[in-house]
Specification:
19% of the residues lie in helices and 39% in strands. The chain contains four helices and eleven strands; from the N terminus they run H-E-E-E-E-E-E-H-E-E-H-E-H-E-E. It has a seven-stranded mixed beta sheet. The chain has a two-stranded antiparallel ribbon with strand order 5-6.
Length: 180
């Protein structure tokens, strides 16, 4: 695996930015700056590069904060689409599918190739892209507070194993409550 700081430098370079770093205990906060404007931030923690792709900051329990990034939030997009499964007595039962986009897939592919990079985003993006896209796990005592007051763990993340694309010759039978 490559040096997380080199991975950050490569990503920052794609946006024409320069990297500034600040040591915080055993971690390093990296900031990508272009024309005196902060584009995005990352954190090197235990040889893992954590990049905040959300538009809002992430506050960690140790007091470290990664600022939000409208730049990367515009890249790592996902959307939720609903699909009707069946209807019973006028009540619709649906499933939600999470869809990716091309820019987001390129960023996720880059992170996968780097090997030690996670991209912090929304739970919708986690469901659409799977690992290495993650969302923060918030401490129980701050979970119900407004987002700027919430505290997240550095060593615990929500994610999903990416789906394997397997072709099925015949559609699988849908099990509805009527068949239970």
């Amino acid at each position: 695996m490559r040096d997380p700081k080199e991975s950050f430098k490569e990503l920052c370079g794609r946006y024409g930015g320069d990297v500034e770093s600040e040591v915080k205990g055993s971690d390093t906060v990296l900031t990508c700056i272009k024309n005196e404007e902060m584009l995005f931030q990352g954190l090197v923690h235990r040889n893992l590069l954590i990049i905040n792709t959300a538009p809002h900051p992430i506050n960690f329990i140790d007091g470290t904060t990664l600022k939000g990034s409208t730049t990367l939030a515009g890249e790592l997009k996902a959307r939720a689409e609903t699909k009707k499964l069946f209807e019973r007595n006028g009540i619709s039962f649906i499933t939600t599918e999470f869809k990716t986009d091309e820019k987001g897939r390129r960023l996720v592919d880059w992170a996968r190739k780097a090997g030690n990079v996670i991209l912090v985003s929304s739970i919708i993006s986690v469901n659409a892209y799977g690992y290495p896209v993650v969302s923060p796990v918030i401490t129980p005592e701050t979970a119900r507070l407004p987002p700027p007051q919430r505290k997240a763990y550095k060593d615990k993340w929500n994610t999903k194993v990416p789906k394997l694309k397997v072709k099925v010759k015949e559609p699988l039978e849908l099990i509805t409550p009527k068949k239970w």
